[in-house]
Specification:
Elements lengths: L6 H12 L3 E6 L7 E7 L4 E6 L9 H15 L9 E5 L9 E5 L11 H15 L28 H11 L9 E3 L8 E4 L2 E5 L6 E3 L1 H15 L2 H14 L6 H10 L13 H16 L3
Antiparallel strand pairs: 1-2, 2-3, 3-5, 4-5, 6-9, 7-8
Helix pairs in contact: 3-6, 4-7, 4-8, 5-6, 5-7, 5-8, 7-8
Protein name: Ser/Thr protein kinase RdoA (MazF antagonist)
Pfam families: APH
InterPro entries: AGP_Transferase, Aminoglycoside_PTrfase, Kinase-like_dom_sf
């Protein structure tokens, strides 16, 4: 891996992998870890190219893109609508960074799912958790590292954060190992009408507690939309889950949104930080 991004080389490689040259491309919205390019090919087909460009994920690009390829292959033929992996250059020999080419699914993301959308999200997450890949994926990693356990200066709920850190300092509760998307949320779903037509971004696929996936979906809704759809999602997921809810995982995911020391917050807008602050306070109140 040279580390010098060569988009032209990546497009040529993608065309060769499909058997049809790339005639145009555009950058897709989002992409915290990567440049995500929508490609149009000479034969009329469309693909998506992930170029793992952003640190710290770039350093781990080979592992992340390989995991995404493996997850898509494991879910092929299941009820979970995932892209088809078409080609992988995990070592970045072509583009200078890890690259993964996949089919393009129909649909567009929604910024704020309605009540029916929240219900569809919960049902789909239960479907994901019901999958049993032949080879288990890695054990989940907490994103609430101890280095993050610093009460943020912008909080209005100092005691809630202190309580959260105390909870996370204890051993995690027991759980039934479950297949996880690990970054499940409304931003990684594609919608066609009222139907979810795609689940994308499988680089963090893991094995772990089902409620950690649900917690991440809820906290993302709470921070980017509002607490009401987040709570509605948890209520809907509880009706289809195979294990009881445990607020520990809600706390873990909320704290995981704090930045490592010396880095800016992932969510920087004042309203987003306020909603994260209020969400953490709410989930801490769920603790017995």
């Amino acid at each position: 891996m040279s580390g010098v991004l060569d988009v032209d080389a990546a497009l040529t490689w993608a065309g060769s992998a499909v058997g049809s040259a790339v005639v145009s491309h555009e950058r897709l919205a989002g992409g915290l870890t990567s440049q995500m390019l929508a490609l149009a090919h000479d034969d009329g087909s469309q693909t998506v190219l992930r170029l793992m460009t952003n640190e710290p994920w770039r350093t781990h690009g080979a592992e992340l893109t390989t995991r995404e390829r493996d997850a898509q292959q494991a879910l092929a033929g299941t009820p979970v609508p995932v892209p088809t992996s078409l080609a992988l250059d995990a070592g970045g020999t072509v583009a200078g960074v890890a690259a993964h080419l996949m089919s393009r699914l129909p649909g567009r993301p929604r910024e704020a799912p309605d009540a029916d959308g929240v219900r569809a999200m919960a049902g789909l997450l239960a479907t994901i958790h019901a999958q049993r890949p032949a080879e288990p994926f890695r054990t989940y990693q907490s994103w609430a590292w101890p280095e993050k356990w610093v009460v943020p200066g912008w909080t209005r709920h100092t005691g809630a954060w202190e309580r959260a850190f105390e909870v996370l300092a204890r051993p995690a509760p027991a759980y039934d190992p479950t297949f996880l998307h690990r970054d499940f949320g409304h931003r990684n779903l594609l919608w066609t009408g009222g139907r979810i037509s795609g689940v994308v971004d499988w680089v963090e696929t893991s094995t772990g507690p089902a409620w950690l996936d649900a917690a991440h979906a809820a906290s993302t809704l709470a921070v980017l939309v509002d607490a009401a759809p987040a709570e509605a999602f948890l209520e809907q997921y509880a009706t289809v889950a195979t294990s009881p809810a445990d607020p520990y995982w809600l706390v873990m995911d909320a704290v995981g949104h704090l930045p490592p020391p010396g880095r800016p917050p992932l969510f920087r807008r004042e309203d987003q930080l306020r909603r994260l602050d209020d969400w953490l306070d709410l989930v801490v109140r769920r603790l017995s």
